[in-house]
Specification:
Layout lengths: L10 H4 L2 H21 L1 H10 L10 H17 L7 H34 L6 H20 L7 H20 L14 H24 L5
Helix pairs in contact: 2-4, 4-5, 5-6, 5-7, 5-8, 7-8
């Protein structure tokens, strides 16, 4: 008999140190790869935009970075009961949840939208769709173990709204397929709508959490 699916949902499996280390390594490597993937756009932004806008360019790897840091909290639980440490942890967890849900769905949506308009799907696209889907799924699996509350999701959502505004006001949004540039206004409003959706889903997931 195979292992029951409930095992993969259990606290004992998801918070097992071996599995946490595996998750950490995968997310860390994915984060590094993500920043490398954005390398050309980061260079272009540094050359043609004010430097402060660079932080708003690499959306997905920054979301992955937040969750990678969250995994470290389980691997190396902070000692003591510092309000600052706990507050920082909860903010990072809130950012991890809403940003990972949003950019996980957003990236897959843009690839699919481009393919529907004639862009051929290469192996990189399938890899990106798989990895970005995993981003959204993993934070929903782990949200019930986080200390963050809905207020942390609010902070994460405010960051996303700021990011959206900077992206589409100063044209530092993630580079799109040429076929999607004609639909930039629709992409913009889809992006804002996805921010609100991510807050609702992430907030509900955190509200239903169990304390670690």
């Amino acid at each position: 008999m195979g292992m029951p699916l409930s095992l993969f949902w259990s606290r004992s499996f998801l918070l097992n140190r071996f599995f946490l280390w595996l998750m950490f390594i995968c997310n860390f490597l994915g984060t590094v790869y993500g920043y490398i993937w954005y390398g050309n756009q980061i260079e272009d932004t540094v050359s043609n935009h004010p430097l402060w806008q660079v932080v708003f360019v690499p959306d997905s790897p920054t979301a992955s970075l937040f969750f990678t840091i969250t995994l470290l909290y389980w691997l190396f639980p902070p000692r003591g009961d510092s309000r600052f440490v706990n507050g920082a942890r909860m903010i990072i967890e809130g950012l991890a949840v809403v940003t990972s849900i949003k950019y996980g769905i957003w990236a897959v949506s843009m690839i699919v939208a481009g393919s529907m308009q004639g862009d051929p799907l290469q192996w990189e696209h399938w890899m990106l769709m798989a990895s970005h889907t995993a981003m959204a799924v993993e934070v929903l699996l782990y949200a019930r173990f986080m200390k963050a509350g809905v207020w942390a999701a609010v902070i994460g959502t405010l960051w996303l709204l700021l990011n959206d505004t900077v992206d589409y006001t100063y044209d530092v949004f993630p580079w799109l397929s040429d076929r999607l540039m004609d639909d930039l206004t629709a992409v913009k409003w889809f992006t804002y709508s996805l921010t609100i959706f991510s807050f609702i889903v992430g907030g509900l997931a955190l509200k239903a959490r169990k304390q670690t």
